[in-house]
From TrEMBL:
Superkingdom in the source lineage: Bacteria
Protein name (database record): Aspartate-semialdehyde dehydrogenase
SMART domains tied to this protein: Semialdhyde_dh
PANTHER family from the UniProt entry: ASPARTATE-SEMIALDEHYDE DEHYDROGENASE
Protein family per UniProt: Belongs to the aspartate-semialdehyde dehydrogenase family.
Single GO BP term: methionine biosynthetic process
Domain Semialdehyde dehydrogenase NAD-binding: 11-143
Native organism: Liquorilactobacillus aquaticus DSM 21051
Pfam families: Semialdhyde_dh (PF01118), Semialdhyde_dhC (PF02774)
Length: 368
């Protein structure tokens, strides 16, 4: 199943379109070959305004607002039935409490609208797939069980994982054959992960904040769901039990790019050459199918002592690739390395768009 030129683009709605991740969706989808943004929705505060009016003074992207969405009227995300009539599926980046997000995303799914979510609310719902398309594309088959539970034919929810794990989990995925058993991962996370720019977060200048709410639990547990398996009897994804991951997460004065310092023990005894070769040769379904947002090279290994660096490497493969460097033996663990990922491209909107491309290619997202 290769990527085919579509006669007609799928109609997309963006929930939470005015926030930073919503804005990133808008920019990344501007010239998408498969998807077209036909609808934007946000809270009741923005409803009724044009998109341009709604983001006036708080447009955070580098380029201008794409012309095609400027004059779209922002709808209230609670107008589920109206929105369901106008779109084939939605991206969700709403900013609400977890309970509210769960409720609204399930409402859309029950209205027969597939939901591809950037939010964490449904990541631990057992029959909701949490997908990194290069790593666990087969988890989408749990959708049939979710549809049974929801009583839907087309509607479902799929999520992408936390942005920070993208800086080390892809490397560990490439090394699964060497059986990693224990991992320490410390992440140094950009302020855009909190939806902020430097202008909005002056407290981060000349500072490191050693706490990001909920982040360490996500960092330790979410990779295990990604490496888990779909159990037909349980009608759920059963998380893997290893490796055991412990983490610390810090906010640093960087706009885009999450860096990880990771240490890993293996059951096997791989050489440095074997580990690097496994990184560079790692491919997945998105590369095989040539999905529109897929990086040609998922993971690059950099040999310089001072790389990866945010300044030079965060936009590798338009922010959809992962950069690994400084792989070396450790005195306590077997190996240690540095990882870098773009937190709003691969880590947020871009990762969700690639997920939607995969689900479309697999037949889960279709036109009316």
């Amino acid at each position: 199943m290769g990527s085919k030129i579509m006669d007609k683009k799928l109609k997309v709605g963006i929930l939470g379109a005015t926030g930073m991740v919503g804005q990133r969706y808008i920019t990344l989808l501007a010239d998408h070959p498969w998807f077209e943004v036909v609808l934007v929705a946000a809270s009741s505060r923005s409803a009724g305004k044009t998109y341009e009016q709604a983001v006036a003074g708080r447009w955070k992207m580098e380029g201008p607002i794409p012309t095609a969405v400027k004059d779209l009227t922002v709808l209230d995300v609670d107008q589920v039935d109206r929105i369901a009539d106008e779109v084939d599926f939605v991206f969700s980046a709403v900013s609400m409490s977890k309970d509210e997000i769960k409720k609204i995303e399930e409402k859309y799914a029950k209205a027969e609208i597939p939901v591809v979510s950037n939010n964490s609310a449904h990541r631990w719902t057992p029959d909701v797939p949490m997908i990194v398309p290069e790593i666990n594309p087969d988890h989408s088959r749990v959708i049939k069980f979710q549809r049974e539970r929801l009583g839907t034919k087309k509607g479902f929810i799929a999520v992408k994982p936390n942005c920070s794990i993208q800086s080390y989990a892809p490397a560990l995925s490439a090394w699964r054959k060497f059986e990693p058993t224990q991992v320490i991962a410390t992440t140094y996370q950009a302020i855009s992960g909190a939806g902020k720019t430097f202008k909005e977060a002056p407290e981060i200048l000349n500072n490191v904040v050693p706490f990001i709410g909920g982040e360490e639990e996500k960092s330790e547990k979410e990779p295990l769901k990604i490496w888990g398996r779909v159990d037909d009897q349980e009608k759920a994804i059963i998380p893997a039990v290893s490796p055991v991951i412990t983490s610390q997460c810090l906010r640093v004065a960087v706009l885009y790019g999450h860096t990880a310092a990771a240490f890993v023990n293996f059951k096997q005894n791989p050489t440095k050459e074997e580990l690097i070769q496994a990184l560079e040769s790692y491919r997945g379904v998105p590369q095989e199918m040539k999905l529109p947002s897929a990086p040609k090279q998922f993971i690059q290994y950099l040999t310089e002592n001072d790389r990866p660096q945010v300044r030079f490497d965060v936009n590798f493969e338009k922010g959809m690739g992962i950069s690994i460097g400084r792989l070396r033996p450790d005195k306590i663990f077997d190996w240690k390395f540095i990882g870098l990922s773009h937190n709003t491209a691969r880590g947020a909107a871009g990762g969700a768009i690639l997920c939607a491309e995969l689900l479309k290619a697999q037949g889960y997202i279709t036109a009316d």
